[in-house]
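A quick aside before the break. I want you to see a complete sequence-to-structure record at least once, exactly as it would be stored in a machine-readable document. Don't worry about memorizing anything.
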Amino acid sequence: MSERHKTVHDPWKWGWCYHNREDPRVWVPKKNPEAGFTLNFTHRQAYPILLLLLIAPIMIVLLIELLK
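That is the input. The structure line, written in tokens, reads:
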């Protein structure tokens, strides 16, 4: 993260949930960058992305069951 996105407060809530209003990125590296990325939950686009990530696997399973 660049210096302009760093704030005085810790943007990590509960150790895994990233909240930083000053950071314009939707996807941010996790505390351990080797673990991948997480959503910036103060960004407007984070919740539709989260919803899509939750609904897509459910829809795939339902579609497979319906096609049997």
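Two observations worth writing down. Strands lie at 12-13, 17-18, 27-29, 37-39. The mean pLDDT is 88. We'll return to this after the break.
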